[in-house]
Specification:
The protein is of the alpha+beta class. The chain is built from 3 helices and 4 strands; from the N terminus they run H-E-E-E-E-H-H. It has one domain. It has a 4-stranded antiparallel β-sheet, with helices on both faces. The radius of gyration is 13 Å and the shape is globular.
Length: about 90
């Protein structure tokens, strides 16, 4: 599965997919307006993630403008994607 497929299939507020060794795909629905997807790569430990790709898509029949993307809280979205990736990679104790 790639990021576009995960973004197409998400029905929950967020979803995480293990894409490969040390790689996670995370997608989040923002209200009913946008889907944001990120491809993250694990760095050094299961708590550190580099963002390799970000995709923003409108939901439904909406269109998207530069202002819409500018208004997105990207720092908070990246933090949440990293949290979800960490949660999915947490070692079992």
């Amino acid at each position: 599965m790639d990021l576009a497929e995960l973004m197409d299939s998400v029905v929950e507020p967020s979803a995480v997919h293990v894409a490969g060794e040390g790689e996670r795909l995370v997608t989040m629905r923002l209200a009913d307006d946008f889907n944001v997807g990120m491809r993250l790569h694990q760095r050094d430990s299961y708590r550190k993630w580099d963002v390799l790709e970000i995709a923003v898509r409108p939901s439904g029949d909406h269109s998207i403008t530069g202002n819409d993307v500018h208004d997105l809280p990207m720092n908070a979205l990246i933090d949440e994607a990293r949290r979800l990736a960490t949660k999915s990679a947490r070692p079992v104790s």
